[in-house]
Every structure is written in C-alpha cells, then in structure tokens.
Specification:
homodimer, 21% helix, globular
Chain lengths: 263, 263
C-alpha cells in the first residue's frame, strides 16, 4: 500500500490553520477527511509544519499512507474533486513508507508580503499586511534582515506558549525585496532549517520597526542576542505570510526571485 | 464646485457590475451613495464603461461633480473610508466641469487571464478562466490575436441585445502572452478606442478555439469578416476579465508587459 508525499497549496483565509482543532475547519482536517473517504479507513495526514490561522501556503508538504492501491495522478484528481477550491493538492509522489513530512524536512521557505501604500489594492486584501503612511526604508530593512542569516538562538522571536526543545535554528537566507507595484509591495523571504512558532511574523514585526526608522538595523542583532521575546516588535498579522516550499535533502533552491501569491 | 476624475479599482466578484441595477450591489451605486453622502445632495457618478457582473477593474475611470468644496486627497480618503474594501478609489484629480468619463475616453485597455493547468491555484480562483487539459497553442493564439488589430467592424464579437450605433472599432494592440507561472497562465491584452458589449470575452472565446486547435488562426479573420455573432466561439466567463486602464487623449501607453491582477 502506497505512501504519498503531497504538495498542498491553500488560501488560509477563514481556516483555523493547518492543524486539526476542536472547532473550525483546518487544512489537515479537510485532507484527513478526504483521505479517509478514499481509503475507507481512518487515515492520518502529517504536515511538514503547522501554519497558523489565516496563513497561506503555496507548497506545504504532507505525508499520507493509504490503505488502498491508487496511483498519484488519480489521488490528486480525487482529492481535488472533494476538497474546497481554497485547498488544492498540486502534486503527489510515491515515497518510502518511512518518509516523515515533518522530521525529514531540511529546509522551509516563507515569504511575507507588506502593502506599503495608502490605498490597498482590492486584490491584495487577504494576502498582505497593510501599512499605509510613509514609505518603509527598504535598505535599512534589507541590512537588518541579513543579520539573521546563519545559526542563531531565535528565542527572542519565538511566540509564547511554544514547546520547542531547542530554539537554535539555521537561516540560509533572509532578504527584503520591494520594487514591484510602484513600490507598494515590500516582500520578505526567509529560508531556514526550521522555524519556531510565530518566528517569521515576529521577525517581520521587528523589521517593520527598522523600516519605520524607529530602530537602526543593528537593533535586530541586539534583539536576537537578548533571547528575550519582550525586546522585539509586534507580531505581524497572519494574512501576509506564505509557506512557499518545504525541502528534503540539501537546501539548494535559494529564495524565490519574486513572491507572487499566485502559484 | 469641483469636478473630479476618479480612478477606481475593484474586485468584481459578487457585484452586479459597474452599472446601478434594480437589485444587487453595483460599483456605480456604491460610489453614488458615498458621493451623495459627502455632498449632502444626490450626486450621479458616470463611468468610462460598464463592466459586467463579475468583471474586475484596476483602472476604471469615473467622473463626479460635487456640490461641495473638497480637495482630491480628502475625497480619496473619505471615499475609501466609506466604500467596501473590494472597491477602492486609487486616485482623484480635479478636471474641467465639461469632462465626460465615457465620451471623452480615447482608449481602453483590457486584460483577460486564463489558467491553463489541471490544478487551479487557490489564489487565482476569482481572477481566471480555468481551462484544464492540454496546453493551449499560444503561438496560434498570438497569430490569431494580431489579426484583430486595426479598424474593423466587430459585429461578430458583439453580444446580443446591444444598442451600439456603430460596430466599428479601432484596435491599437491585441496580444497573447503566457510564459509566467510555469506556463499555467495565459494572458491576453487588448487596447482599442472602444469596445462593444461582451466584445473582449467573445474574442477570448474565439481565441481559445484556436488555442485548442479546433480552428486555425485565420478563422478569427473569417469570423470578423462574417459580422455574424453566430460564427464565433463561446463567451469567456467574466471572472478572467480586467479593465486595466482608460485613457483620454492620444493612445500611447502600449499594453502592459504583464497583467498582474494586483494593481
């Protein structure tokens, strides 16, 4: 009986997040319901990471072992026929039964999108953090973002209530882009071997402090060194965050050149 | 008392279209309600063109004469504070009272977006025509699209029930692009001095016949020459269509290089 690695895209708006909850609709719950239906027996689905409520994914990865012979193409079609349009299985691939979506992951890439103009495009509403007012200093943000690359203790950027054993993570790349859309869109991309809860959104909150000129770029390094969450900025809202890609094996993709929310 | 030229963007999903109707929410109706509220007296708003139900706009233009002194910036802010987030006034400019949004328009540019892949991105759902199955022949579509440039009688691409006095229009540019998004997205852009009802969607319906290989590119010329709507293809759905820009004066912008649905 086959085990599949699924690549899943979803518009997180209105969902309670990846993980199945007591109340509300989760992506994991939707996938488990569909796979259970297909297999005729309760079928768990394991994700590479738990995206929070309202966070989007272009390339979440999940593993599922099906008690039924089925080929990958048929699985994709059958799953998408049952899932709501906001959730799509974009690929399925047979993998060894030992494959673990979460523990085997070696790199994840996230993007965060900020709309930095007074008028918010109606097409961007659910996919950005809207920051009207003066233009963010992208050069300062870029300098600050680069300070996060390498292996560091990211305790200062971890949300409260986490249970991670270690708060050390290795960041392969951390970069601010923002020339598209007449300067309205500021895009942050970060790739690392793992992320703590709210880590990307807390980093973005701090980068925005720098972009607004309230703190110098070097302040990000001070926050990092403090290992103290209370030193950082606010947590950026969920809507701007996209899980772009999960990798297994050596990290080699680099950051996406641009981060369209269309996949 | 000032007259304003408003540039308006909207996500047309769920609206009955630009024009005020007996039932349902229209963009014109929303704008008239807001302007009436601001002016304290019934205030009509005239659009450059009537987009149909479900059609989007990145740069619709409207004219409004306000019986109240107000500067452009304040007007933009006040309007957006009252409008739903799906409709945004992105610019306001004082113009002579004689300005007419519709009759003075010299060029309009539309884009039409097709998602040509089996799995539809959850982020593109309301902004494309989803055509799964074999890849469309973009070269054939490009050749066919070019045949529409110039001054022609477009009666064959006019929807029934129109009351246009003349069905002649001049098309400045008509082009198919489609390299972005791993080939999933096929984008059609057309600029002309005016458009008949359903004209762009009917043209796209015919281009898709060519893209599917059911007709050769030259067939588009035959349909055009027939002046007979029954010779053409189906009408493409509203969701893929965007009014990108309305111009006053000489046409000189050319087509957008890409047609992101974000503005």
């Amino acid at each position: 009986m086959p085990t599949f690695k699924l690549t899943v895209a979803y518009d997180g708006t209105g969902f309670v997040g990846w993980q199945r909850q007591a109340a509300g609709t989760s992506i994991q719950g939707l996938l488990e319901d569909v796979m259970t239906e297909l297999a005729g027996t309760p079928t768990p689905v394991t994700g590479a990471g738990r995206t929070d409520a309202g966070v989007h994914a272009r390339g979440q990865v999940a593993a599922v072992h099906l008690e039924r012979e089925i080929d990958a193409q048929t699985l994709v079609r059958a799953a998408n026929a049952h899932l709501p349009a906001a959730v799509r299985v974009i690929d399925a691939e047979v993998v060894p039964e030992s494959f673990h979506a979460r523990f085997d992951a070696t790199a994840k890439t996230y993007c965060y999108r900020i709309w930095n103009a007074d008028v918010l495009s109606p097409f961007e509403r659910p996919y950005v953090w809207h920051l009207p007012g003066p233009a963010l200093d992208r050069d300062a943000m870029r300098t600050a973002a680069a300070l996060l690359e390498g292996r560091h203790d990211f305790a200062a950027f971890q949300g409260t209530g986490s249970d991670a054993l270690s708060t050390e993570r290795r960041i392969f790349a951390s970069r601010v882009d923002g020339d598209a859309h007449d300067g309205a869109l500021v895009e942050y991309a970060i790739a690392g071997d793992g992320f703590l809860r709210y880590m990307v959104r807390n980093i973005v909150g701090a980068l925005v402090e720098v972009g607004r000129g309230r703190r110098p770029p070097a302040w990000i390094g001070e926050v990092l060194a403090s290992r103290d969450r209370s030193q950082g900025g606010r947590t950026a809202p969920a809507a701007g965050l996209f899980l772009v890609r999960v990798e297994y094996g050596a990290y080699n993709h680099g950051l996406p050149r641009r981060t369209p929310h269309v996949a």
